[in-house]
Amino acid sequence: MTTVIRTMLGILFTAGSLFADVTQLVENYQVIQRADDDRGTCWVMVPDSLPQTTRFRITVTNDAGNSVMEQENVALETVGDTTHAVIIRGLPVGGPYVIQLAAQTKQAGNPGDAVKFGHILVGDLWLMAGQSNMYGSIRLEEDLPTLPYLNMLNFELIREEPHWCAGDPPIHRYPAELGASNMLQRQYPEATADEIAEMVKNKVPAGGIGPGYFFAKALYQQSGVPIGLLPFAIGAALADWDPAKPNQGRYGFVQRQIQKIGGRAKGVLWYQGEQDAIFGHDTETLTKPSNIYPVSTYAAEYKKLVEALRRDCHNPKMPVILAQVHGHYHPPYYHAEGYADQQVEQKALSGNLLRGRGWEKVREIQRLLPETIPHVHTVPTIDLNVADGIHLDYPSYTKLGPRMAYVALPYVDQAVPSRTEIRLKSARWIAGGQILVEFEGVVGKLLAPGKPTGFTLRNQQTGLDESWIFKIEFDATRPNVVRLRSSGAFPKDQMQLAYGTGPTPYANVMDENGMPVPAFGPIDITE
C-alpha cells in the first residue's frame, strides 16, 4: 500500500493542490500553515482501490518519539475532485513531527500498511521575494547550524517541480543552467574547476546568503512558531512581478507554487528596487537589462502586487516587510554598451547626481508605502555595509533578518503589542534657523555611533544640496526628536530636508534597539 500511495501523491503534487486553503501532505519536511486557532489541517490522498468504508488510524509523534495526537477509525472524506482523502485536523503548532497514516482492517486496532511523513512542521509560511539582495550573492562566512524549526521549499529558482527540505543555507539555490558553478566557486574558492564540475553533477546546493535564515532564527526565538521559507527572489525589476502578466514574468511562477502548497501563507519578505533605481526612467518603460516600468509608477505597481499576493495566499491582511534599498558603488551605468541609446538625454547630466536621484526616488517611494498600503513595513538598510558595491555583506544580513523579524513578531504572536519600524513624523522650523525632526516607532532613544550625520538641506530651485546644517543634536527631553542647527543665512522657503542622499550615503542615526532612521526626502519643512 505504501508504494501505491506515494505514487499517487507524487502525481497529485505535480498537478497542484485540488483543495485551496488546506495543505495536501505529500512529502517529508513540509510546513503546514496554521489557522487562526493555532491548529493545522492537512489531507492525504489514498488509492481508489481502497473501499470507501475503509477506516484509518492517524498517529502524530514529536522528534523525541512522544505522542502528540492519535485518532482511530477516521473515515474517508471528499476533497476537491477525490472522495479518497483522509483529512487530519487539529495539528498543534510545533514540530518536527512524524505523521503516520494506516488503513485499519475489519479487526479493530489491527492496522494495515502505513504511509509516513517525517520532519513536518506546523507554523507559518513566509514568501521571500525581490531580487539579488534577497536571495544573496555573497558566500557564507561560517557554518550555520540546521534549525529544526525551519524548513524550505526548494525549486532552485525556476524548477516547476519543487521539493521540501531542511532550511539549510543556501536558501535560494541555483540550478546548473543559471550559474550553479559560479555560485559554488564563490562558496568554495579553493576548489578546482574539476571539483566544481563534480559538485554540479552531484547537485551540491549552490547559492549565497540573504536575510531569510537570520529572520527565521530571530522570529522563532521570540515566538516559538516554526517557519517555512519559500525562496522566490530572482534578479529583475518590479515590472517582472506584474500580476497582470503572469505568463511574462515571475508572478505566474509564484502563483503556481503557492497553489501547490495549499494556497495560504503568513507573510512576505521583500528586498528589491535596485534595478529600478539604477536603470529606471521617471516616465518611460525601458527594456534593458530587463523590463522596467517608469519609476513614477512604482508605488501603484507595488500596491497591485501586494493585493494580488494577499488574494492568492488567502490572507487579506498579510504583512509585507520590505527592505529599503541601500546604495550603489559603481560608475554611471549608461557608459556600458547598449544602455546609452535609451538614456540619451541623461548623459549630459552629472553621473553621480543622476545615480543619486534614482536611488533617492526609490527609497522615498518605499518609505511611503506603509502610508498607503495597510500592514506594509519598510525596514531601513541605510546604515549597513556592502560586500561588492551593491550587495550587503555577511554581517549586514545577520542584522537585517532580525530587523524584519522585529516588525513581524506582532503578526505571529498576538500577545505582542503592535509595533513598527522607525517612521518619520514631521520636520519643522523653529527659532534660530533650527529644525526639529520627529520620529515615531523609536525604542528607547535616538543615538548615533560617533558623530551623527546624514541630514542635508536641498535647494528646490537649483536641485543641489547645500551644507547649511552644522550640528545634529539629540533632544534629552524628547528621545524621538533630532535637532538640526543651521546658519540660517539662506532663504528658508527654498529649502527641503533629506536624509541619506545620493547613491552612496553615510547616515548613522538609530534607536537603542538598533533600528535605523529611514532614508527620506527631500521633504518640505513646515513652519
How would you describe this structure to a colleague?
This protein has about 525 residues and is α/β, with parallel strands linked by helices. It has a domain at about 425-525: Immunoglobulin-like (Sandwich). Helices cover about 25% and strands about 30% of the residues. It has helices at about 1-15, 130-135, 180-185, 195-200, 210-225, 250-260, 275-280, 300-310, 350-370, 395-410; strands spanning about 25, 30-35, 40-45, 55-60, 65-75, 75-80, 80-90, 95-105, 110-130, 150-155, 165, 225-230, 265-270, 320-325, 375-380, 425-430, 435-440, 445, 455-460, 465, 470-475, 480-485, 495-500, 510, 520-525. The strands form five sheets. Strands 2, 4, 5, 8, 9, 10, 11, 12, 13, 14 and 15 form an eleven-stranded mixed β-sheet that branches. Strands 1-3-7-6 form a four-stranded mixed β-sheet. It has a four-stranded antiparallel β-sheet with strand order 16-17-22-21, with no helix packed on it. Helix 3 (about 180-185) crosses helix 4, helix 5 (about 210-225) runs parallel beside helix 10 and helix 8 (about 300-310) crosses helix 9 (about 350-370).
Q: Note poorly predicted spans.
A: 1-20, 346-352
Main structural class: alpha/beta
Strand content: 25-35%
The CATH class of the domain at 423-524 is identified as Mainly Beta
Count every beta strand, where a strand is a DSSP E run of 2 or more residues. 25
| Biggest sheet details | 11 strands, mixed
User: Helical stretch count?
Assistant: 10
State the share of residues found in helices, binned by percent: 10-25%
CATH topology of the domain at 423-524: Immunoglobulin-like
- Distance linking N and C termini: 77 Å
**Shape-level CATH architecture of the domain at 423-524:** Sandwich
Mean pLDDT: 90
Taking Cα atoms only, what radius of gyration do you get, to the nearest Å? 26 Å
Q: Which descriptor suits the 3D outline?
A: elongated
